[in-house]
Design a protein that fits this description.
The chain is an alpha+beta fold. It contains 13 helices and 19 strands. It has three domains: about 90 residues, Phosphorylase Kinase, domain 1; about 180 residues, Transferase(Phosphotransferase) domain 1 (Transferase(Phosphotransferase), domain 1); about 120 residues, TATA-Binding Protein, CATH 3.30.310. The strands form three sheets. An eight-stranded mixed beta sheet has the order 1-2-3-4-6-5-12-13. An eight-stranded mixed beta sheet has the order 10-11-19-14-18-17-16-15. It has a three-stranded antiparallel beta sheet with strand order 7-8-9. The structure holds adenine.
Length: about 450
């Protein structure tokens, strides 16, 4: 089995759309190489030009924060992140903003992603694996105690420094993990949902803490075995496996390790072990010294005002040093530029070609209702191999071509189905209209369905 990076990323920085920021000045920081790339933008190496101290700067494209509904949440999340101080959690020092971007100035971790470590060196023995897992649990449970949940824990978000200590990155900002876009659909921009808890797939409403526990279990499994507990090229089959908790736990693991994995990867969130339970587990407790958050020394300048965001006066593209003026987050977010969505619809994002949502309607009902809805909207439907092909010919101007969408329904469980819409060609706005209508009509409960748009 193979571990595949979940970023949908390009770490080599050779993407033709890549906008190089190398050498660029950002207030008191100079940007360097790309360290990683996630759902919402790149993470770049940066140096404070006064102190020479290294940082990692996460660059978020404001255009990707596109719905007014999440601005308050983002504000709160950034404020909460700034208050986190734990040796196993990457610190957020300050937040800068320009007209088009938000820059999160983070602690720089010298080391590697746990993902790369496992890929290059393979699984870890139980003693080494337990130490990393203990630190992971320490960091995650500390954040939970502060009311912050990760919601996207995966190997790529666990950094291991040169001393072998865990630093969790990308905490919070869950509003950006799951957001209503201007098209009205709830999107989760995850590359692969191998780490997602069953209750999230089932869309039953979920608790951030219990689903983070699940993801920690997936991470522990990979650390100790070198492969993912739930994996399949076919997303519907993968969802089914997660949903049923269909996991093979190798017999060559110690009884203690098998037991804790089983307790964590319990598909029922009600009976799943809690953070407190994990800390009481005999396998977990071996050689366990909990980290003391108060030990965390601050050897760099910390911006004490949780709500402050420094507005850069010069747009970064000018490459001129900007002396930041301090405004508060509420002012910044109130500024129209923060939510200027004009650019969003101008170009079609590759990631919008494929949309999925869940429904509790039966497969038969779904197919019938999809046919009715799209016919009502003036589309033609062809049925082939259990799939529906939805076609709209452009009668007015042949050169504009046509819209062609494949609709497929997958059964996850007898009461849960995933509808997948794949656009093979055609106009993005018509496609979005179609998706919006189907989601409104078919997702149960309405509009709360899980929709994932994938980077292909
Ligand atoms: N990659 C992503 N975040 C990072 C960080 N804070 N330090 C080093 N590398 C990173």
């Amino acid at each position: 089995m193979v571990l595949v990076n979940n970023f949908g990323v390009n770490k080599n920085n050779n993407n033709k759309n890549n906008q190089s920021h190398e050498g660029m000045r950002l207030g008191k920081y100079e940007l360097g190489r790309t360290l990683g790339e996630g759902n919402f933008g790149k993470v770049k190496f940066a140096k404070n030009i006064d102190s020479d101290q290294p940082f990692a700067i996460k660059i978020i494209d404001k255009n990707k924060i596109i719905d007014l509904n999440i601005t308050n949440q983002i504000k709160r999340e950034i404020a909460a992140l700034k208050l986190l101080r734990h040796p196993n959690v990457v610190k957020l020092y300050e937040v800068l903003a320009s007209k088009t971007k938000i820059y999160m100035v983070l602690e720089y971790v010298t080391g590697e992603e746990l993902f790369d470590k496992i890929v290059s060196k393979g699984k870890l023995n139980e003693d080494k694996g337990r130490k990393l897992f203990q630190q992971l649990i320490d960091g995650v449970s500390y954040c939970h105690s502060k009311g912050v949940f990760h919601r996207d824990l995966k190997l790529e978000n666990v950094l291991v420094d040169t001393k072998g200590n865990v630093e969790i990155t990308d905490f919070g900002l869950s509003a950006m993990q799951q957001q209503f876009r201007a098209d009205g659909l709830l999107h989760t921009t995850c590359g692969s949902p191998n780490y997602v808890a069953p209750e999230i797939i089932a869309n039953r409403g979920y608790d951030g803490a219990t689903s983070d526990v699940w993801s920690c279990g997936v991470i522990l499994y990979v650390i100790l075995t070198g492969y993912l507990p739930f994996d399949d090229r076919n997303l519907a089959v993968l969802y089914q496996k997660i949903f049923k908790g269909d996991v093979q736990i190798p017999k060559w693991l110690s009884a203690g390790a098998q037991n804790i994995i089983k307790r964590i990867l319990d598909p029922n969130p009600e009976t799943r072990i809690t953070m407190a339970g994990i800390k009481e587990d005999p396998w977990f407790k071996q050689d366990y010294t909990p980290a003391d958050p108060d030990d965390e020394e601050d050897d760099v300048y910390i911006d004490d005002d949780a709500f402050s965001i420094h507005e850069l006066q010069h747009e970064e593209e000018h490459r001129s040093p900007g002396s930041p003026t301090q405004i508060n987050a509420f002012q910044l977010i109130g500024m129209s530029s923060f939510l200027d969505l004009s650019g969003f619809f101008e170009q079609e994002h590759v990631s919008e070609r494929k949309i999925r949502f869940t429904s509790n309607l039966s497969a038969k009902d779904l197919i019938e209702r999809i046919e009715d809805t799209v016919t009502e909207m003036g589309f033609r439907v062809q049925k082939k191999n259990g799939k529906l092909k939805v076609i709209q010919e452009n009668k007015v101007q042949k050169s504009l071509g046509c819209l062609s969408v494949i609709v497929e329904v997958f059964e996850i469980s007898p009461s849960l189905f995933v509808v997948e819409l794949r656009k093979s060609c055609g106009d993005a706005s018509v496609y979005r209209q179609l998706c919006k209508k189907l989601l409104n009509d078919l997702s149960v409960p309405p509009r709360q369905a899980l929709v994932s748009s994938e980077v292909n």
